[in-house]
Amino acid sequence: MEIFIYLFFALFSVLNPIGTVPIFVGLTQHDSKSERSRISFWTAIDVFIILIISFFVGQYVLSFFGITINALRITGGIIIASSGFSLLNGKFNKNKGINKKVEQEIQIRNDIALTPLAMPMLAGPGSISLLIAYYQEHHTTPEMLSSSFAILAVSVVIYLILRSAHYLSKILGTSGIVAISRIVGFLTIAIGVQYIISSVLSIVRGI
């Protein structure tokens, strides 16, 4: 249960689906309610697939390229902390990897679930590196099951948030979404810094 709770909140902080709400609203403002629901569903499915593959296959990618776990943790920590700073400064829109040109191209496409919603707006380098590093320390069968359920739970929450995005946008308003994103950003920075500290301590112990 500890592993489930920790990974769930860590992933939720890094993915920050609340920060995606105004972007989702902007990209789906001309779509019907059923179409928004469909996009929300497939975005959640795509996020789940990306995260679960990263969790189970990421270690082999590291081995292939000869990347050490400490190097990954430090790099992931920097990326996660950087994302947190962007959220804390209210720049989560820019940080999500979408600009005006890309937004215009998206508007004339039918399906936006995989790109840009699932990746890179939700499942980006921060969450992927977090999962790869997490697997290195938690790879017994019960731990992997708990981690898989945490990934599934986050995906379900993403679906519910995106499906209610237009409603949340009206209730919370821009200031409310920014406030929540800044709180999440603070937690995200803490997660990134903790990853860096753990890696540095591990390197020092090995000397």
Give short descriptive properties of this protein:
207 residues, mainly alpha, 10 helices, 0% strand, globular
Give me the strand/helix succession: HHHHHHHHHH
- Tally the helices: what do you get? 10
Helical fraction equals: over 70%
Radius of gyration: 17 Å
Structural class: mainly alpha
What kind of sheet is the major sheet?
none
Strand content: under 5%
> Termini, distance in Å?
34 Å
Compute the average pLDDT. 84
Describe this structure in words.
There is one protein chain. This protein has one domain (2-201). It has helices at 2-15, 17-27, 33-65, 69-88, 92-95, 100-107, 113-122, 125-137, 141-163, 165-206. The radius of gyration is 17 Å and the shape is globular. It has ten helices and no strands. The model has no long low-confidence stretch (mean pLDDT 84). The chain has 207 residues and is mostly helical.
